[in-house]
Amino acid sequence: MPNYQRILLKLSGEVMAGEKGFGIDSARVAGLAAEIAETARLGVQIGLVVGGGNFFRGISAPREMNRVTVDQMGMLATVMNSLALQDHLERAGIPTRVMSAIQMNQVCEPYIVRRALRHLEKGRVVICAGGTSNPYFSTDTGASLRALELRAEVLAKATRVDGVYDKDPLRHSDAKLFREISYQEVLSRGLQVIDASAVAMCRDNGLPIVVFNLNVAGNIMRMTMGDPIGTLIH
Fold first, then answer.
1. CA atoms of 107 and 7, how far apart (whole Å)
2. pLDDT in tens, 16-59
3. pTM above 0.70?
4. Cα 95–101–107 angle (5° rounding)?
5. Is 1 within a domain?
6. Which residues constitute the domain of residue 221?
7. How far apart are CA 190 and CA 181, in angstroms?
8. CATH of the domain at 134
9. For residue 223, is it within any domain?
10. Burial 43-79 (b: 16+ CB within 10 A, else e)
11. What is the domain count for the chain?
12. Which of 93, 121, 125, 226 has the most CB atoms within 10 Å of its CB?
């Protein structure tokens, strides 16, 4: 029996690229879609937010570019990733809707909270694209906003590492993994696994966050079932 009935899953754009590091790796996306589909078939209602870093990262943009323009380009990249993931989910037999905060009606639906909730209630996976449509907001913050709007029981952030560490485990072999940690400790320590604004929003609204490793096959299902993987921020 799933531990959560409705989740908001945040995926980085980089995961869509697989080993390539850029663009979309069809085999990797198909594998992700299969894991998400397996979870959806249990009756879990799933909202998704996908980043756009495999196409465009603001940090690598020329410094002379306007920040608003840079962020808008990043938001458009999330739409491309969302459409690719939708295609693979529907091939796996899961009805899916891409809903964009930036209106592009010929491509996908506009994001409207009540409509998104209705899709979830009908068993459709909802992929929230286009960020919040506003610059200066990361996809982490956008994911926390969507999780709250869609009344998710948990914000699940999928990463390349096993959870929240006291320092970067990819650089420090002695990094310590936290199995549970408070919102305030994440903020006071300046831990970078998730944006501070997203943590603060979840703290203020009592929404738990689970950070887990997406590179371990089956972890989406394990997280949904409440298995003790990753780090619980609460």
1. 25
2. 988 878 899 999 999 999 999 999 999 999 999 999 988 887 66
3. yes
4. 55
5. no
6. 6-233
7. 13
8. 3.40.1160.10
9. yes
10. ebbbbbbbbbbbbbbbeebeeeeeeeebbbbbbbbbb
11. 1
12. 125
